[in-house]
Design goal:
Elements (H helix, E strand, L loop, with lengths): L28 H66 L6 H29 L8 H12 L5 E7 L7 H21 L4 E8 L3 E7 L6 H6 L6 H11 L3 E7 L3 E8 L1 H4 L6 H10 L6
Parallel strand pairs: 1-2
Antiparallel strand pairs: 2-3, 3-5, 4-5
Helix pairs in contact: 1-2, 1-8, 3-4, 4-6
Length: 288
Amino acid sequence: MIACNNDQVWNEAGATLVFNIPPAWHQTNWFRALCVVVLIWLTSVLYLVRMNRYAKSMKVRFDERLGERTRLARELHDTLLQTIQGSKLVADGIEEYLDDPLRAKQSLAKLSQWLSQAMDEGRAALESLRNAASSEELSEALRHIANECAPNSMRVFLTVTGNVCPLHPVARDEVCCIAFEAIRNACAHSSGSAMTIAVSYDRDLKIQVDDNGRGIDPDLIQTGKPGHFGITGMKERASKIGARLLLRTSIKDGTKFSLLVPGHVIFRSSARRWSRLLYKLTFPFTKK
């Protein structure tokens, strides 16, 4: 800066003052970085909260079905097995009436009645439990059904990747029904020479069934064949467990069924370790 005295004489060199104005706290780089970290943290928290609520709702539905199966198993014990035991007692008592044809005939009639009742109770129980969970490992169950339905001209290849995890029995049932339908379709309608079944245990469960046959009419993938509910049923089952079902088909490459099931739905451990850790850090006092 320059100035003048009372005689209006100005200095020509001037004076220099150097100063610095620091940025406000909301203008600093560390504040911007903190905003990014907080945004990522909030996004993770919202995602985990949503996934936790979804997993809980699915667990409630699955537990209801498991409770129903437990009730049916209890009824099976209290009805069918008791009827069979009573039939055995009647059959054992027939020996005492061999010398009395009339009483022996009455006992046989009672035995026939009891056995008819046991058959009715057994049919009702089997009808209710026909989709019960199996203790067989998923890939082995798929191999079993493929070996049963595949014609002699079709080779079957099965691959399993990742660490095999325990599956929720109800979700496992739905996955098995979808995979079984895909395998049966490949065996019965593809006229192919090879079928590949791939099971992948990763963050999610992925099952892929490929064949090298003649493929499916693209219109049938969207609407299904009139009077048949195979593809429609597969889509409905996939929707029930929040899975994604993809069907791709062509004349040259055959048909590819791909099923992707979220890990928090199908795996017994509903979340991965990092998710559980982050959730605990976020909500340390929340009871699960």
